[in-house]
Every structure is written in structure tokens, then in C-alpha cells.
Design goal:
Elements lengths: L1 H5 L8 H22 L7 E2 L3 E5 L3 E9 L7 E10 L2 E9 L2 E2 H36 L1
Antiparallel strand pairs: 1-3, 2-3, 3-4, 4-5, 5-6
């Protein structure tokens, strides 16, 4: 996801910058999920359904069913095989692409301040989300 979220800017990063960005994005993704799943009220995930999609990829879909009659949420995970391992390259929640949103946001931040400013911003948001989830 890190590579796809930066687009062509990924190829311009050094190996250490790529590693740092992957770490920053990983922490942000975890903090973001934790902030959105702050309590349990009987929700349950449906059994995942997987299917092949063009480009030698897989789509795994599941629904988070509300335990209290609220809105259900659909999650679609697009996976691509890389060196024999399946990797998530996009997550769509209720049809909204996380990758598209990040790419638009990150491209603007890169143009304004470069990769280090982008990583600092991601790290600050991760800290805020992690604090809010506590």
C-alpha cells in the first residue's frame, strides 16, 4: 500500500526513506483502525468471500454486521501476490477506496513539504489517533 499510495514518488525515495515511510504508514493504519473500533456492541464480521479479479489479484469481502440494529459496513480487501505472499494493496469501506484517499492526500503533502514533512504529518496523526482510542 505504501508504494501505491505514493505513486511515482515511491521510485524517487532511497531505501531508508522507503522503510521509514512503510513504518509510518503501518503505525498510522493501526492507529486509524483502533480509533474507529473503540467499543464492542455485538458486532460480528460475516465469513469472508474471496474471488479472483483481473491482474492476478484477489478480492476478499466481508461485512461488519451491527449488533444493535445500526448500519452494516462492507470491507473489500484487494490483494496482490508479491514474492509468493499475498499483500493487501487497497481497502475499500462501503465502496470508498482508502488507497485513493491516501494517494490524493499524500500527493498534495509531498508537493508542499517533501517526504520527511509527509512522514512527520503521518506520525503526528498516528499519535493523535492512538491517544483518542485510549
Amino acid at each position: 500500500m505504501a508504494h501505491y499510495s505514493l505513486g511515482t514518488a515511491w521510485d524517487k525515495l532511497s531505501a531508508p526513506e522507503k522503510k521509514q515511510f512503510v513504518q509510518a504508514l503501518t503505525h498510522y493504519s493501526v492507529a486509524n483502525y483502533a480509533a474507529h473500533f473503540t467499543h464492542y456492541a455485538g458486532q460480528k464480521f460475516s465469513s469472508p468471500i474471496s474471488k479472483s479479479v483481473p491482474g492476478h489479484r484477489m478480492m476478499v469481502s466481508t461485512t461488519l454486521k451491527s449488533g444493535n440494529g445500526g448500519k452494516n459496513n462492507t470491507f473489500d480487501y484487494l490483494l496482490s501476490q508479491n514474492h509468493g505472499q499475498w499483500k493487501i494493496i487497497n481497502v475499500m469501506t462501503d465502496g470508498v477506496s482508502n488507497l485513493a484517499m491516501q494517494k490524493a492526500e499524500f500527493t498534495g503533502a509531498l508537493k508542499k513539504g517533501g517526504i520527511h514533512a509527509l512522514m512527520n504529518g503521518i506520525n503526528k496523526r498516528s499519535e493523535m489517533l492512538a491517544h483518542a482510542a485510549r
